[in-house]
Amino acid sequence: MSKELDTELLIALIVARPILWDKTSPIYKNRNETKEAWKEVCIEMNSDFHVYSEEEKNKYGKEVVKRWVNIRDAFNKFLKKEKSFKSLVLVPQL
């Protein structure tokens, strides 16, 4: 069950589902819709997902969500560091 998660595929699948990342979406807070979107992502990430037991599906789903959160947080950290670096470069020298 522990297949290596394809980062680029995961990002593409999530970008295609704004309910998972767009806080301005009216259905962003709808748990049923969100759960269904994550299930779709899991099915597309792993062709064997449908044969898993409920426990295995939950475990795999948590792995996928954890991977997404990790990617998102790393990207936000990168953006913050880059913004900080740009502000340091633009400071006039005395």
TrEMBL record:
PROSITE patterns in alphabetical order: MADF
Highest taxon, organism lineage: Eukaryota
Record domain MADF: where: 9-94
SMART domains in the record: MADF
InterPro entries in alphabetical order: MADF-dom (IPR006578), TF_Adf1 (IPR039353)
One Pfam family, short name: MADF_DNA_bdg
Protein name: MADF domain-containing protein
